[in-house]
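sorry to bug you again but im stuck and you know this stuff better than me. what follows is a protein written twice so to speak, once as letters and once as structure tokens for the fold. mainly i need to know what kind of three dimensional shape the backbone takes. anything you notice is useful, everything is just below:
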Amino acid sequence: MSKPLKELLKEEREAEASRPPAPVPEPAATAKFTEKDVSLELCSPRSEKSMQVSDFTADSDWSFDLQRLAPVSEEAEKKTTAEKDSDSSKNEAAIPSVKSTESEESSGTSEKSESDELAKSASISPEKCETPPTGKVKLRSNDETPESVAMPGVLMKNQSVDPDFFKDLDVKELSPVGTAMVEEAWERLKKSFVYYRGKPVGTLAAMDPMAEALNYNQVFVRDFFPTGLACLMKDPAEPEIVKNFLLKTLHLQGREKTIDNFTLGEGVLPASFKVLYDSHRAKETLVADFGGSAIGRVAPVDSGFWWIILLRSYTKCTHDYALAELPEVQKGMKLILNLCLSDGFDTFPTLLCADGCSMIDRRMGIYGYPIEIQALFYFALRCAMQMLKPERDGKELLERIDKRITALSFHIQKYYWLDFTQLNNIYRYKTEEYSHTAVNKFNVMPESIPDWVFDFMPLRGGYLIGNVSPARMDFRWFLVGNCIAILSSLATPAQATAIMELIEARWEDLIGEMPLKIAYPALEGHEWRTITGFDPKNTRWSYHNGGSWPTLLWLLTAACIKTGRPGTAKKAIELAETRLSKDGWPEYYDGKTGRYIGKQARKYQTWSISGYLVAKMMVENPSNLLLISLEKDKKIAKPRLTRSTSM
């Protein structure tokens, strides 16, 4: 009987660790950074020929790019090839069934050689850049070392890159099935491109020839995000469509937005847009939907956040800092953030939202302070801190952002977190407490805890619950909010580890036969009738109500890599590969385990395709994580509040 994969990987790592490291070439250049500010460097787009391997510490989230590395010396490359051949023969003896895959490895592609060289190198340096001219933006370094001990596989500030980090995350050649799926996915993704006056500006939501188009023939802001990442992570990168998308959606932001004689805020970005041909003027025009045509007529709160995060990913990938410095781009970011930071009656730093304002765009009881919006809000604030210029009113806005980040991180980590211990505490809560020393601050009734939570919560693990507001806690699990919290470092390192432990412990519930559950558990019976209003699309274990969405693979994969669990991501990807292409790349799956194609799911859903591609590229090249990950900001201090520690 062949050995388990886990044992084989462990033996392989031990064998590699016993060998002497490959020689490392001399560094071409090393950039120095201050702890307070990191000067923005004007660099040419990534080039394989222009980057060298040398000593490295992650002093700035913007100061380095591990995506493109120059080949190591010929001697090191020959040694690496010999070592890989030796490993291949060992694995063939241990697992005969892997022979075909290992034989493909011996030829090696350029992408894999870069990943292997990265794994063998003991240290890495920033890309060689020119000194920026006077007056350019200075991007703050938000990536501080967390106070807690670094988790295995997590890249921390001021921590030299351990070659074991990338060695453990390295994945061998694609299987024949995976290779064919990747080729098909890229082909279908290209066909979904939408062109405006000859330039690509986005992708269609779906290309199902057997279903009515409805609004699936439009470019959705949130749907395009994984497509944008796929184009940026591709080797070589294809950033043109991402840049055009960012500029066109920004242009639409400036239009007057009126729904039933009511004018929306100036900073609102559209949920979607489409290209129409104006026969009278004989030219193409862009038509945007700001929520006036959406189910429930709700404006998308998340569009602006996805836009800011994608702008940061684009800038980090291409080093095209000029785009973020454009006056109209700076103004667009400020308009989005001013909408969220305006004064009101709020006593919490979280953002108050209506139902249906995010990916869950129908009535599902997420009104109030949903975790998905709070995590995206936090992520966008931190990205904006890096890109906003301090000139004019920028300095005041940066100060407001800094204060909000501090308060928001404390609030989410303190009041949204649920593990076995906290669940037991809430179960024992006293009610009707008065004064600032109250433990049960939101006056949550212990009797409101649903029965399923007690069985769902493992002894090891935890998660950020769906919503917290006066006398209300939504204990449902929402994947997007939890994974975004990990990527943005809104969740502490210990919380991030616990979230992944919960996913692994409840694999059958949250992953099942097709990744991944957008929410758990499903609303049923009376609860479904009262919360969804008898919604026929959100019946139990369908669509947003416990449906399984393949596009979420990229989020799970990114969270797994950041927490040092590439094997978990690979397991989920392989599970999706068994059916996703054969089923026609559906939008979502139904059933408690995700066994059935969704009853109203569109086929050839674009973000199902791009989500799979991003997941594959991150597993094959873990340095792609740097485009969508932020490390913990040590400057975020916990407020000193006096609270009772007893019940």
Residues 394-416 form the longest helix (23 residues). The chain has 22 helices and 17 strands. Residues 24-80, 88-174, 639-647 have pLDDT under 50 and may be disordered.
